[in-house]
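Q: Got a minute? One more chain.
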Amino acid sequence: QVQLVESGGGSVQAGGSLRLSCAASGIIFSIDAMGWYRQAPGKQRELVATISSSGSTNYADSVKGRFTISRDNAKNTAFLQMNSLKPEDTAVYFCNAQGLVYFNGSRRYTHALWGQGTQVTVSS
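A: Always. Here it is, folded:
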């Protein structure tokens, strides 16, 4: 069975930094895109950043210049380096993987997979 496991969340003061990690476990052949989304209380889930298998990145305007997404394809892991954090960055951050080809008794494909989420809290 394949799953995404996030780590690195926590509490930090405004201006601080955190680094999130997302590891895809299981026998995985390939992953197209990986990304991070976030959901604050009472708000809809929103895109934070995505990265393709070739390394092309896309960021929400609110995090450009502060957050950096990267990935290690050999380890099926994505990272989100968050600098200059603001209280409005407080949310549960979810990892997303799209276009997974993996093995679970046979070669299988799933369009999208989500992690369980990790809390990021930024205090002023």
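A: Residues 11 and 121 are 5 Å apart (CA to CA).
Q: Perfect, thanks.
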